[in-house]
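Take a look at my tokenised protein here and describe the backbone shape.
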Amino acid sequence: MILSIRQDWIKYWIACKRCPCPEKRVIDIGCNIGYYARYFSREGAMVTGIDPMPEHYELAQALNKLERVPFDLRLERFESAHLPESYDIGLLLTVFYHIMNIDHVREAFLRQINQTVHGLLFWESGGAPDMERSVLLNGTHFNRYEKLAVTEGTGKRRELGVFFTA
């Protein structure tokens, strides 16, 4: 089977595992301009998108209004966010590698994942997928991982996969 974009792989995995989106709580960590957050919102999920960059936040707000697809959009850093909710699905697409080597930020980030994401964590790596995958498996409550695809972006060979618990 050839699936060409990340969204296709995520949709396929969710469909195969019979994990429908309606009424699921989804958090898009480092949502950028909200592409995946809007997708899951359209599918009926209750979505929170979080990004620390004001320019991404402003553009996501404008796109949400234009496309009439609202979701809870937050301008803050994930590792220090006050998130009272628990999420069934987390999206961590090309984000973790930015903070992985900053010890105190990485540890706060992993604690936040453990406190808030309890079902699935879809992940796309930076340029060092083996190292990132190992840190996520050893630093979170997720104890299983399934590789979905090898991807590329910004000149880096990346990996797309999903973390879950047995």
